[in-house]
Amino acid sequence: MDYDSFLDFYRDVIDNTAIKTFTLAQELYELYRMSYFMCNWEKNPLFFDDGTYDGFSALSMALGMKDAGSKGILISVDNYGSNGYQYDGIGLDGVKRECSKYPELIKYIDFIKSDDLNYIRTLSSNSLSFAFIDSWHEYDHVKKTLLAITPKMKSNLSMLCGHDYSWSECGVVRAVDGWREVNKTKLWAFGNSIYSIWYSVIREKQ
């Protein structure tokens, strides 16, 4: 799918649902493209979305899964403000209701209300093909999230990415750069693809 076609999808979601997003259309398209790539590498991947908010990122990843003919699953987790973190979205019931307007996409997604760190720790090691980090942006939380999720990523090939890498006032840049330095031997590639999206390709050294 080219960007213009994705933009039609983006506008349809904005115009016909109650879903809001702080992520730019270009950034969501990057998520679509990365998801599509990973699903062409592996047909039955396990994806993880850390920080559902209203579900737009999850829908964009699911669109990539669909277009690649994937049989994978996307787990999308958010605490929806239950731990005191400020949340002004439509809530879990609203996310499920609005995303169900796209039945060809929601069939890929399992929306879960949970503390993200607690849920990540329940995942099996070496199980995730793709993960997108966009929850609480405070430095300690991002650092703990990256520490917890790294052993869950498939070591033969997986992609770990996140949002707000260009937002210097939050803790994302510091936490990601520190994680990158510690794990540099595991990283096949690292970059800031567009605007605030950072990504890393994890692959065993041959």
Which SSEs are present, and which pair or pack?
Blueprint: H1 3-16, H2 25-41, E1 46-50, H3 56-67, E2 73-78, H4 91-99, H5 103-106, E3 109-113, H6 116-122, E4 130-133, H7 139-149, E5 158-162, H8 172-182, E6 187-194, E7 197-202
Parallel strand pairs: 1-2, 1-4, 2-3, 4-5
Antiparallel strand pairs: 5-7, 6-7
Helix pairs in contact: 2-3, 6-7, 7-8
Please write the string of helix (H) and strand (E) elements: HHEHEHHEHEHEHEE
Q: Please bin the fraction of helical residues.
A: 40-55%
Widest sheet, order of strands: 3-2-1-4-5-7-6
Number of strands: 7
Uncertain residue segments: none
CATH architecture: 3-Layer(aba) Sandwich
Radius of gyration: 16 Å
Number of helices: 8
Structural class: alpha/beta
How many domain modules? 1
What is the name of the CATH superfamily?
Vaccinia Virus protein VP39
Mean pLDDT: 90
N- to C-terminal separation? 33 Å
Query: Major sheet, described briefly?
Result: 7 strands, mixed
Overview of this protein structure:
It is a single chain. The chain has one domain (3-13, 21-202): Vaccinia Virus protein VP39 (Rossmann fold, 3-Layer(aba) Sandwich), CATH 3.40.50.150. Helix content is 41%, strand content 19%. The chain has helices spanning 3-16, 25-41, 56-67, 91-99, 103-106, 116-122, 139-149, 172-182, and strands spanning 46-50, 73-78, 109-113, 130-133, 158-162, 187-194, 197-202. A seven-stranded mixed sheet has the order 3-2-1-4-5-7-6, sandwiched between helices. It is globular, with a radius of gyration of 16 Å. It starts with a helix and ends with a strand.
